[in-house]
Design brief:
Helix content: 10-25%
Radius of gyration: 31 Å
Number of strands: 49
Strand order of the largest sheet: 12-18-15-14-20-22-26-25-24
Distance between the termini: 19 Å
InterPro entries: H-type_lectin_dom_sf (IPR037221), MetalloPept_cat_dom_sf (IPR024079), Peptidase_Metallo (IPR006026), Serralysin-like (IPR034033), Serralysin-like_metalloprot_C (IPR011049)
GO molecular function, one term: metallopeptidase activity
Protein name: Peptidase metallopeptidase domain-containing protein
Oligomer: single chain
Amino acid sequence: MFHYGLLFNEEKDTNLVKELLKNKNSISKQLEQKENSRLTFDGNEVVSANSNAKENNVSDLNLIKRKNGWIDQKFSVVNNQEDSVLLSCNCSSCCRESAPENSESGLFVSPLDTAAASSSNISQDVIDTLLTTYAWSDNTITYSFYDDSVFNNYYGNEANVSEVSEAVKTNVREILNLVETFADLEFVEVDESETGTYGQIRYMLSDNPGYAYAYLPFGSRYDLAGDVHLRTSYDHATNTNGFQNDPGRHGYTTLIHETFHALGLEHPHSSDDGDSLDSRKDNMSNTVMTYDFTGNSAGTAMPYDIAALQHVYGAADHNTGDETYVFGTTTDVYTVNGQSPFTTSHRVKQTIWDSAGTDTLDFSGLSLQSGGYLFDLNEGGWLIANAQKVTKNSGETYYKYGTSLAYEMTIENVINSRSNDTIVANAVANTFSGYTVGTRVGNDILRDTDELDTLDLSSYSESNVTQTPAGDNLVIDLGSDGSVTVEDYFAVPEANRLSILLEPDSPEIETIDETTNVAIAEIGKITNLNHNEQTITLQNNYENPVVFAQPLSYNGADPSVVRITDINSANDTISFYLQEAEYKNGWHTNESFSYMVVEAGTWQLEDGTLLEVGTLDTDRVTSSGWENISFNNDFTETPAVLSQVQTNNDNQFVRTRQQDADANGFSVTMEEEEALRYSGHSEETIGWLAIDSGSGEWDGFTYQAGNTGDVVTHNWHELDLDDFDTAPNLLASIATYDGSDASGLRYREIAGANGSTIKIKIEEDKSADGEVRHTTEDVDFFAIGGSGILTAQAYDPLSSTIAQRLAFSEIAEDSLLEDNMAIETDFI
């Protein structure tokens, strides 16, 4: 492992700083004290700090003057400390590709004073884990980009220093603009010139870092202070590590990380100054300065970073009016006053800072989530789909993507989503709205409410809702629209309960009979799909359609899968093509397959059969881990489960694999061809369906759902199906992971004297070797003897007993995704 450090005489360096503080006019004389300072690189070549400057034909005095703005700065000691060590960031967050190439390097610097008071709602101990003793002493900070047309030599020891690309410059400007929205800082870009002008923070490419590093503000080498070095070979956007990437990729987060070093922050796990962050909190959901890269990458400063920088530089006035944050279909995309904080096509973690006003979070546009959402309005709280929350065995919690709220800010109002929402109130007056007659809003839970809070049900009259005590909780039944459970409503005196607004004189709610069936699905068959994309128009209208389209027939033997390229709910169309494994030529003969489109949600057939459909976003593959899916409602027995990749974000050949299904849930991941099993895959949306095992009639069509048992191999296996008049439409997925070779399913219809039978087999590819034998696996299947529209009724446990209500509440609370694999994502 490569290690380097700049080692100076600590006593002389500290004395130099003190003299500089006393008299700037004697700089030349004081710089002479640096003659005995030495540079050491792994104990090899040793040169004086002064000699490095002379080799570039520039004196130390000129170097200081050239650091634009430095000469007018004032220095003082932070917390009465005179620590003279400056770390240049060379951490795995910055250096990591497959593994850290470099370790930390130490530099001596001048200590500075910090400004603002500590946040009262985040522990000072937490803030301290990110603070060094150094910061810029003025709130206006210049920055620049090394200009190779002006400078032929660089004052540091880095090799092949050069200018960053325009794309990186754009990213840096965007990051600094975002910092200005929460910290009381003004960044002024300086054009580098022949007169020796450049910024206090300076960005450049060089060959020294394994990936990237930065120098803290000021040091014995004042010229180096604030310099950010990026490895030249990563100035691209071809993979997640490239610095030209949009927010949501590691390269962009690294630019944030290095900028924060240049502003004076350190790694939270660093114990050199006697403090370190609790390992259960040390992850990128809290700070970009972490080494723990769980979940998607951050696109902004995270809550601890904002608190630390505001502690040093003060807080910015930002969004001081009455703002409404309007969220799109996911919790990591929002606009305020019609503007987004940034534009990206990636899933991302981000933080909101809002300094004043009465503010509203509008979640009415979020897509339906079978697992529901969590909206925690407290400082440092998160706004996420429950499926994006991961709790490890260690007790560490992180969030794959979503939006967090900064400390020292308040949100007053919430407009709910159409899914099951758990809303956690904060200490100010909150109003919970979005409940409108005739609008399905799910079964919501309100937590930590008090007399300051208001539940706005003014669209409903008192006679049209049912209020039922359930222990200490109050359950408000809104009929077919959903329900609201106010936790601990009766656990406090009446004077301390939230207000519930109902309209006494409003007309009765026009309810829909909960037993009325509605069109939720359709099934059909395609007989002519090949490598060319094909689009079909659906018969029904859907809000959140989920598509299943496997197995594939066996007219051509090259390993193939039906790849969905677009699900357009606005136009009710689906586009797909037949995708061969990467090692094949991509051309394929016509194949047949059955497809089923189902509205996401939980449904019940007339015979009582339970059906649940949902989606999740993941970049996991079999070599990196599994996603654990918890059903929203417990099945009485293990259901038959289907899964299918819904998107085409990464055009590498990919299928799903499943395992560990029971009545409560199952695990799923993606799988590329065998030769690429360790190559990783971009994030895709996976659709899943679970249905009670058994057989019956669905809208006049005979159907059967079940599991084959552990019997299916690479040889053809006849499905044990009930009697169908004709060969049924078949949907199936491999349900176990007994064999780790990349595998999919193929089927064929065999005509016989007593009708057609269906056989299936497991298909391996030959991308890694010529062997295609596969051990026995379970296969889950759904067969139905007909095509067309299918109906069901919405399944609502709250329509029954209080015991069912409580059970459903517990399920909703316990349905947060758990991941014991602790796989690091987003990095090669």
